[in-house]
Amino acid sequence: MRITIFARNCKMLRKNKFSIAVALIILVLSLTSSQTFSNTGFDDIPYIDKIAHFGFYFLFMSVIIFEHRDNLVNTRRLLLASLVPFSFGSMIELLQSGIDIINRSGEILDLVANIAGVVTALFLWLFIRPYHYRGLVK
To answer: pTM to 2 decimals?
Structure first.
């Protein structure tokens, strides 16, 4: 029984290795002190943090879709899969607002940018999906 559960968990980790990697990168970048990024020179670009949030969560949802493209046969499953990055982003924003040590603050606009990235990836997949099932996109 224990071997079966362990094998199932290993299979789940292997199947989701890229989305887990993206989630870990997002987690590390989100919980890193904001002073780390102040010397990069990107501070001059207006709303760069919102653009980064959008991009990271677009990537996160895109990777989830890519890893599960054969199982996302209907919109309901796709919406259920989108709860993963949405919940993850919400949890990180709560952590940022609750931990004073990292010198970060959780913002509603960051969460909006996260959701916009996820929704854009969803719409893009809904546009591409018919071509995927016809065999035109692999």
So the answer is: 0.82
